[in-house]
Design brief:
CATH class of the domain at 5-94 and 171-253 in chain B: Alpha Beta
CATH superfamily of the largest domain in chain A: MetI-like
InterPro entries (chain B): AAA+_ATPase, ABC_transporter-like_ATP-bd, ABC_transporter-like_CS, P-loop_NTPase, PstB-like
Number of strands of chain A: 0
Largest sheet of chain B: 6 strands, mixed
Structural class of chain A: mainly alpha
Low-confidence stretches of chain B: none
Mean pLDDT of chain A: 90
Structural class of chain B: alpha/beta
Number of helices of chain A: 14
CATH class of the largest domain in chain A: Mainly Alpha
Number of helices of chain B: 10
Keywords (chain B): ATP-binding, Nucleotide-binding, Translocase, Transport
Distance between the termini of chain B: 36 Å
Strand content of chain B: 25-35%
Number of strands of chain B: 10
Strand order of the largest sheet of chain B: 6-7-8-3-9-10
Protein name (chain B): Phosphate ABC transporter ATP-binding protein
Helix content of chain B: 25-40%
Oligomer: heterodimer
GO cellular component, one term (chain B): membrane
Shape of chain B: globular
Radius of gyration of chain A: 28 Å
Bound molecules: adenosine-5'-diphosphate, magnesium ion
Helix content of chain A: over 70%
Pfam families (chain B): ABC_tran
């Protein structure tokens, strides 16, 4: 008898009433309905306001229900969880709607013809034409910028993490920080001033130089973080085998972190692929196909989008082309991201048995 | 092969902090010498001065002499990279290279140094793994990552990696402290075999281990926290554990402090 009483008591302290798993969904649905109802009654017509009211109701409702059934500690836990969910939705909703709008408007003229023809014989106000020249320009400018910016950035990061001590390293870190904050138009103006000194006309590579300036600090920062993640024990293990430091870095440190470094570079590439300002200043834009980045004006995707909006006097055909080019640019950046993830996973240190 | 180590008046610093002071001792070839002493008395620091790994730490600085068969490791013109090829090291935590397979881990020292013949590599890897008593456990999965092994296997992999470059001396910094008793026993047996070929120095916190594996034992201590560590005495292991000549050694061994 007495043992039974003891076990009963145990149960009562360890077990507590808990809400069924579907509760959050019911509360979410309820607060959505209620939110819409309140908004309609109050005559609010902004859907953003509806959503915000529903979100507040969701958090409050979760707390109220959980506090009543499960107790205060569990209620706080649930409120924290629902706040995280609300924040997540607030972040995701604009992103998804942006992609949605771009896809819906972009697919109208996006086809093989569009991807393989330039604007050479088409006025900006007329339908037809395409973005081949802009794709070529973007690929060449971004590619050259990456060839310059990525190696310099990675080497700088290696210097800072593996060798940098004292004043020089501090100075380099400081300048990298300053460079991170340079607005892209300023990088463009800097190269433009050089071009003016040498009396040069706009050309693709000038844009690459400005993009490389924008890319470098991003690469330095991300590579630095990745190198710092490599455990010191691996460096010491290699050094203790009598491997020189430079080979240790090349054969042990870099392979261990190459996945993360590539991801960082890809993200930096994605960032500069969307830059418009320096390209506008330095590459100028060109409706014709120009395969040579070292001579003559070129186009680029972001610049093309801007010019289609700006120079078309409100023509619907130009707007369609701008959206289609935007979709292409987003797709390009997404593919880069996927490639980066693939490389990171492929190169990640292996742990399996 | 195995070489004698002769240390005289060795002092090591981390920046301005003096970690160990005025240490002198001789380590005979083909013997096992154990370092014991309370935490923070500078055993690891001293061990790392023996293959010039101490200076890898920022601010690391050494005064004094370490003779390896009459050649001063800290003499002018000595290349620390060459020193480390002759004095190998095994660390407290097993640290196989995570991007490399078991085979590549063992071959790493040779490959990264670039001085090997391709035809010999297979033999050297097999010999080293056998030398580390690991061959039978891994011979069917040499191409699998080394990080997939158990902790004890990883540590023996690290030993195989260290002996693959044929050093004269093998330094081990608490090689068993992260391992279970069975793996510890495996490594202790291994040390008994390795001393036929190498001069071995091992840091250990385990008194029984020092008694089991070593021929000579050195006791380190520090006067107070923040003071540099010193060598209190070094003697035959039997004597240290039965009849040490310094009272502090006896107190430490019998568990009265530390
Ligand atoms: N990387 C380091 N930087 C500064 N001081 C250190 C470092 N490593 C060890 N020390 C100091 O050196 C002394 C000896 O440490 P260590 O050799 O690790 O002792 P043990 O291995 O005997 O426990 C300690 O006072 C410790 O604080
Ligand atoms: Mg130690």
């Amino acid at each position: 008898m007495s043992t039974a009483a003891v076990t009963d008591k145990r149960h009562s302290t360890l077990r507590a009433a808990s809400l069924p798993r579907w509760t959050p969904w019911v509360i979410a649905a309820g607060s959505l309905v209620l939110g819409i109802g309140i908004s309609m009654a109050a005559g609010l017509d902004s859907q953003v306001q509806w959503g915000l009211i529903a979100a507040v109701l969701f958090v409050l409702g979760t707390f109220g229900v959980a506090a009543r059934v499960e107790g205060r500690r569990q209620a706080k836990d649930r409120v924290a969880t629902s706040l995280v969910w609300v924040a997540f939705l607030l972040a995701v909703v604009p992103l998804v709607s942006l992609i949605w709008v771009t896809v819906v408007r972009g697919v109208k003229v996006l086809d093989v013809y569009f991807l393989t023809h330039s604007m050479g014989v088409v006025a900006d106000t007329e339908p037809g034409g395409g973005i081949y020249h802009a794709i070529i320009g973007s690929l060449e400018q971004v590619g050259l910028a990456t060839l310059i910016g990525a190696p310099i950035g990675v080497l700088t990061a290696i210097y800072l993490v593996e060798y940098g001590r004292g004043r020089l390293a501090k100075a380099v870190t400081f300048f990298v920080d300053v460079m991170t904050g340079i607005p892209s138009i300023v990088a463009g103006l800097f190269i433009l001033s050089l071009m003016l000194i040498f009396e040069m006309q706009p050309f693709g590579f000038a844009g690459s130089l400005a993009l490389a300036i924008l890319m470098m600090p991003v690469v330095v920062r991300s590579t630095e973080e990745m190198l710092k993640l490599v455990p010191n024990e691996l460096r010491e293990a290699s050094l203790a085998l009598g491997v020189p430091k430079w080979r240790t870095i090349l054969k042990v440190v870099l392979p261990t972190s190459v996945g993360g470094i590539t991801t960082g570079i890809m993200l930096a590439v994605a960032r500069i692929a969307g830059e418009t300002a320096p390209v506008l200043l330095l590459v100028f834009g060109n409706p014709f196909i120009n395969n040579n980045p070292f001579e003559g004006a070129q186009a680029s995707l972001p610049l093309y989008i801007y010019q289609q909006f700006a120079n078309s006097a409100g023509s619907g055909a130009a707007f369609d082309r701008a959206w289609a080019a935007s979709l292409t640019l987003i797709a390009f950046v997404m593919i880069l991201n996927l490639v980066a993830r693939g490389i990171a996973r492929w190169k990640a240190p292996k742990t399996g048995r | 092969m195995a070489k004698r180590i002769d240390v005289s008046g060795l002092t090591a610093f981390y920046g301005s902090h003096k970690a160990i002071e005025d240490i002198s001792m001789t380590v005979e070839p083909r013997s096992v010498t154990a370092f014991i002493g309370p935490s923070g008395c500078g055993k690891s620091t001293f061990l790392r001065t023996l293959n010039r790994m101490h200076e890898v730490t920022p601010g690391g600085r050494v005064e004094g002499k370490v003779l390896l068969d009459d050649e001063d490791l800290y003499g002018a013109g000595i290349d620390p990279v060459s020193v480390r090829r002759e004095v190998g090291m095994v660390f407290q935590r097993p640290n196989p290279f995570p991007t490399m397979s078991i085979f590549d881990n063992v071959a790493a020292g040779l490959r990264l140094n670039g001085n090997y013949k391709k035809s010999e590599l297979n033999d050297i890897v097999e010999k080293s793994l056998k030398g580390a008593n690991l061959w039978n456990e891994v011979k069917d999965r040499l191409n699998k990552p080394g990080s997939g092994l158990s902790g004890g296997q990883q540590q023996r992999l690290c030993i195989a990696r260290a002996i693959a470059v044929e050093p004269d001396v093998l330094l081990m910094d608490e090689p068993c402290s992260a391992l279970d008793p069975i793996s510890t026993l495996a490594i202790e047996d291994l040390i008994g075999e390795l001393k036929e070929r190498f001069t071995i120095v091992i840091v250990t916190h385990n008194m029984q281990q020092a008694a089991r594996v070593s021929d000579r034992t050195a006791f380190f201590n520090l006067a107070a926290v923040g003071q540099p560590g010193r060598l209190i005495e070094i003697d035959d292991t039997e004597r240290i554990f039965s009849n040490p000549s310094v009272q502090a050694t006896e107190d430490y061994i019998s568990g009265r402090f530390g």
